[in-house]
Amino acid sequence: MTADPISAVPWWTTYTVEQRHGGQWLIGPSTLWVFHGPNEWRLTHKQEPDSLMSESAVRCPVPESEWPHVIDPDVAASQIARFSTRGDDPRVMLTPALADRPVVARPEHAIYIPAGEEVTLYVSTPLWIQVDLGGRAQHEVPAYRPSDTWFGPSTREGELCYATRTTGRLQLENLPLRPHRAVTPLLLRNRAADQLLLERVQIPTQHLALFASPDHMLWTQAVTLHREENAEGARVQIEPGAPPAVADAKRVAAPREALRQNLVMSTFKAISALFSS
Fold first, then answer.
1. Could you give the number of structural domains in the chain?
2. pTM here?
3. I want to staple 218 with a disulfide (CB 3.0 to 4.6 A). Which of 2, 182, 224, 261 is the partner?
4. Are 201 and 83 members of one domain?
5. Which pLDDT score is estimated for 254?
């Protein structure tokens, strides 16, 4: 059985996979196969190289003819995880999650923000897929594994982040629907006396909650970055709740890390390279 497109059915929900049956989930560039065998679960993950793939489909159960995709350890370009369990709970729960460390987003084109002006960018970042198998085994895979990058003024000062490119949309209606990415409304306020050249920006994804809109698009809390006169970096403000522009959104995942004010302020204060100017 093939599920409806993502506009009708979200991929993050609970499915039933009885013993000797399997399921297949296509989530953007990622494909997951799950096989429920006697006393074990097998999960196969394959990632395509195209990070902009936007397809989403679910097949559950998968016919016997396709079981080798899950059972055969020689499936090309795939990662396989096996879990031994004594229970027979058939539930498979998929949950989206944000990155476990900050994401440095680089817009396709640099943006100038004049002194005293502000702009809202809609920045998307890759998701991770958390899988709960029968309530006894948990596993996590990236929907698309971004590259690593160091973000800071020097090799000694800064932190390890993920790197991603983004179109940095300015209009809400121009946002593409991608099932493997979440959108962060990013308000940048330039209160300094000089013009700001924005070439890349750090998103504190590990401190953000995740929300789903009625059209099954995934969003984070809104983030405001204040650039003040004679200040290094920017003051960071994470807005509570779902983004105001997204009506009737429901929270689907809590932040990975609790927000501590002194941690966030010291982290961003130490990074003079938060903006390139």
1. 2
2. 0.86
3. 182
4. no
5. 95
- Number of Cβ within 10 Å of residue 49's Cβ equals 8
Q: Does 6 map to a domain?
A: no
Write out pLDDT tens, residues 186-213.
Answer: 999 999 898 888 888 889 999 999 999 9
Domain that holds residue 116: 99-126+144-274
Tens of pLDDT along 128-182? 999 999 998 999 999 999 999 988 777 777 889 999 887 778 777 777 888 999 9
pLDDT averages per 10-residue partition of the chain, 277 residues: 45 92 92 90 89 85 72 64 88 96 88 92 94 93 92 80 84 81 93 88 93 94 87 80 92 89 40 41
215 & 167 share domain: yes
Q: Is residue 43 part of a domain?
A: yes
Residue 103 and residue 52 share a domain: no
**The pair of three-digit structure tokens given for residue 19, joined into one six-digit string:** 């013993």
Q: How many CA atoms lie within 13 A of 242 on its CB side?
A: 17
Q: What is the 3-state secondary structure (H, E, C) of the chain?
A: CECCCCCCCCCCCEEECCCCEEEEEEECCEEEEEEEECCEEEEEEEECCCCCCCCEEEEEEECHHHCHHHHCCCCCCEEEEEEECCCCCCEEEEEEECCCCCEEEEECCCEEECCCCEEEEEEEEECEEEEEECCCEEEEEECCCCEEEEECCCCCCCEEEEEEEECCECCHHHCCCCCCEEEEEEEEEECCCCCEEECCEEECHHHCCEEECCCCCEEECCEEEEECCCCCCCEEEECCCCCCCCCCCEEEECCCCCCCHHHHHHHHHCCHHHCCC
Tokens linked to 12: 């993050």
Q: Considering the domain boundaries, does residue 134 fall inside one?
A: no
